[in-house]
Amino acid sequence: MATTRRSESEAPSSTDAVNHPSHYTRFPGVEVIDLTEHLNFCRGNAVKYIARAGAKDPAREIEDLEKARWYIDREIERTRREKVDRKIREHGEARSAALASEGIE
Length: 105
Known about the structure:
mainly alpha; 55% helix; elongated
């Protein structure tokens, strides 16, 4: 996959709203997508909304931050469920192994 990373001397045109929107390219040397494409969906969207808060539409800065929080809260819940599921599986595997060692299936 090609990267969109650029140097400051290669700054995109301010009119390139499709390939290099200004609200995602305001950080020298990196575009937001360069980071978010390495994250899962919820984490990537949280970063996206934080990065653009106040830049895409100053009147919607709080809304962008609230959207970021929504994705963060969703990711926290997903991660909690994943950890609980992992513990349940581990407990079940340990129980199965203990029963097998006792000759109980």
